[in-house]
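**User:** I keep going back and forth on a fold encoding question. It is easy to fool oneself when nobody else works the same problem. Could you pick a protein and write out its sequence and tokenised fold? Could you put it straight underneath, so I can go through it closely?

**Assistant:**
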Amino acid sequence: MNYPYLKGPRVLRKPIDVSLALVASLVVSVIGLGSAAIAGGGFTPGSVGIGDPYVPGEGNGGYQVRSYDLDLRFNPDTDRLQGVATIEATATQSLSAFNLDLYGLSVVEATVDDVTAAVTRAPREMTITPVTGISDGDPFTVVVEYAGQPEILDDPDLGLSGWFNTADGATVVGEPEAGMFWFPVNEHPSDKARICTRIAVPEGLQAVSTGLPERKPITRNGWTTFSWCTRDPMASYLSTVSIGTWRFDRSHTRSGVPVLNYVDRSLSTRADRALGRSAEILDFFEAKFGTYPFESAGGIADNYVSHYALENQTRPTYDKTSVQWGGLTATVAHEVAHQWYGNSVALQRWRHIWLNEGFATYAEWMWSEHDGKATVAELFDDAYSIPADRPYWSLNVSDPGYANLFSGPIYDRGAMSLYALKRKVGAGDFATILRAWANRNAYGNVRTADFIRLAERVSGRSLGVFFTEWIKDGDKPADPR
């Protein structure tokens, strides 16, 4: 994510479709008569929340998802979304019930392995109680039919996320949550899954998502269906769908990765020029970090206002405000770098966010120097010049607290710590550390301690005190030069 630390205006949420809410409540009431929680036999409900203290209500325990298969229809005239989500999962305990995250949409019906299940709703959760328990280790299939008007959430600490309606369609974007605004999901980066999205929109509009098109669009009876699939699992907040009318550009990296860029026709062509450098940026980072980890790349620039750009897997999103930033190409470099650091190598818990933003910021500095602008050393100097008595230095970057997930020190002090590490271990070992971090942890989940161990193994040095000074202590570290 990259943004100027501005809070957007509060957005009034649209009311839930009352008729659908009534239907859903009737379904739940009738089904619930014969579907009380399974007693005995060692079956227990999965936990509400995956155990991350930063987001205690998000993610869910008791299962891991393998894939989401989404069949959607969106009408921009009514802002109404209809969906059927097919979720393939595996139980990690013997389940009597389990939860999925879902915000602002009404559930019509849910089945587990083709048998209708009981559903209860909370504002951000749905609890599914199958007729029979699911044994530990068993695969199971959940199908959820849902509908309504997707919403925007205005978090007082982190700002806006959710489904942003536009003049000609919509875009969904958010961190640390995004999936729950448009499909039932296990909303935490520690449970990655493949996502395929088929979405029907009025003829004349186009729908763009992550991965690559699965087939050519099909138009029938005034609606066009677009199909997109990801080859590799992803954290759900990195998923997106954008509906609108686009200027489209396709290119390839030197290694053959297709780069697909979509810019809303109402936006300035400066967005096209900046996104048009994506292949060049990818070529540079592949030389530094190793093989690009995904099947496609590119970006989406749409006419909505979230006050940030986001590193959606294979296809980062840029809102109207980020298109207007003077450093848009640097922002593109930041989001492209996240494909290695943050997307492929993802967080185990949100407290380790500096592993995403510090690495992407340092990569942005590398690109700046390569592009003939400020050097890494100059950008370090600029950040390091902040006086020692400023609160900027007191934040524990390795555990900043939820409200500071996207504060300035996470980005800049994270990047400074990498520059200082390079000075500490030498350029050769540092280059090896960057590549090894991306390659050895590809498609996995990591913690800060994992990075420290890797840096120590590669360099042959004890680095505990070093990292304490740079990302944990509340004092400004000594200049590393």
Summary: DSSP finds eleven helices and 24 strands in the chain. The longest strand covers residues 63-75. Confidence is low (pLDDT under 50) at residues 4-39. The radius of gyration is 23 Å.
